[in-house]
Amino acid sequence: MARFNFPGGTTTALSSNANPQEAGGHVTFTAAVQQVAGGAAPKGSVDFAVDGHFVENVQLDGTALASYTASTLSVVPHMIAVTYLGEPDTYSASGGSLTLWITGQVAAPTFPRLGGTYRSQILAKCYCA
After folding, report:
1. Computed from CA positions of residues 35, 53, 66, 86, in that sequence, does the dihedral angle turn out positive or negative?
2. How many CB atoms neighbour CB 85 within 10 A?
3. Distance CA 66, CA 60 (A)
4. Which among 2, 44, 70, 84 is most buried, taking Cβ atoms within 10 Å?
5. Which of 106, 90, 99, 85 lies closest to 15 in space, CA to CA?
6. Rounded to whole angstroms, how far apart are CA atoms 84 and 64?
7. Which domains are seen in the chain, by residue range?
8. What does the DSSP 8-state code read for residue 87?
9. pTM, whole model, 2 decimals?
10. pLDDT digits (tens, 9 = 90+) for 110-123
11. Sequence-separated (6 or more) residues with CB below 8 Å from residue 18
12. What are phi and psi of 35, to 5 degrees?
């Protein structure tokens, strides 16, 4: 008799605390991993990637959440992806992604100071009677 053990399916959702985010600001991404059939929270770790480049591996906490914070993203849209690596014979791998928009910082307008004495080249003649 053959015995097979199939890992439980998972889903991974990715969220951010700010989208869009102003350049130079901190943005935190949170991955939430759930077992499809319900039950115990998955264990293991997730990989975070920005624009297709690996940035950090983070262990899931007791509620199957993992977070990554970035602050040096340039002023363009970025593809943020997370991959749950799964656990052999227990949980299957899954992933999620989002597009994060980074906006430029808006400078406060400056206005020249008005007032003072202005000289004109126009000469006025006055005829008095």
Report:
1. positive
2. 16
3. 5
4. 84
5. 99
6. 10
7. 10-103 (2.60.40.10)
8. B
9. 0.76
10. 777 776 666 667 66
11. 25, 27
12. -80, 130
